[in-house]
Amino acid sequence: MKRLILSLFALLAVTTAVSAQETTIGLKMGSSLRKDFGMELSAQTFINDINRIEADLGIRFRYGHIATTAAAGYQWHWFLAGGFGVYGGPAVQVGYTFWSDPGFFQRFNLGFGAQLGFDYQFDFPVQVMLDFRPTYNFFGGLLNGGELYGFDPYMSLGLRYAF
C-alpha cells in the first residue's frame, strides 16, 4: 500500500512538472533560400497562458562569409491534442556579416518579419519544433556581391529541453 501511494504521488509529481513547463532552451538548425546553413541557440518562455517570447542567437555559413544573427519574437501559442502545438507572431532580427574576401565590406543588417511553427512536447521534458521565419532585411544586402537583397525566408528544425 505504501508503494502504491508513493507511486501515485511520483506519477502526479511528474505529470504536474511536465504540464507546468514554461521555459525551453535548445538548438535549432536550418537554412534559407540564400543557400546558407545555420545554427541557433534558442530560448522560449511563456509570459501568460497563451503568449510567449523567444530569443535566438545564431551563426550562418555561406560561400565565403559568416553571418551572426540575433532574433526575437512574440508568439501566440495554441496547444492542440496530444502534445502538439502551433504558434505564430511578429519577429525582429539583427545581424552582422563577415566576408572572407577583402573586396567585400562587413555589413550590419536589421530585419522585421514573422515566425510561424509547430512544436511537440514529449511526456518527458523534451520538445521538438519546426518553424519558418520569413524576414525582410532593410539593411545588409550587397548589390554587386550576389547577395539577395531584402527577403530572408529561414526555416529551422530544433530540439529543446523544457524546465
Number of helices: 1
- What's the SSE pattern? HEEEEEEEE
The CATH topology assignment is Porin
Proportion of beta-strand residues: over 45%
3D architecture notes:
With 163 residues, the protein is mainly beta. It is 11% helix and 64% strand. It has an eight-stranded antiparallel beta barrel. The longest helix is centred in the first third of the chain and has 18 residues, at 2-19. The radius of gyration is 19 Å and the shape is elongated. The model is unreliable at 4-20 and 142-146 (pLDDT under 50).
Q: What's this entry about, in short?
A:
The chain is mainly beta. It has one helix spanning 2-19; strands at residues 23-32, 37-46, 51-62, 65-79, 84-99, 107-121, 126-139, 151-162.
Layout of helices and strands:
Layout: H1 2-19, E1 23-32, E2 37-46, E3 51-62, E4 65-79, E5 84-99, E6 107-121, E7 126-139, E8 151-162
Antiparallel strand pairs: 1-2, 1-8, 2-3, 3-4, 4-5, 5-6, 6-7, 7-8
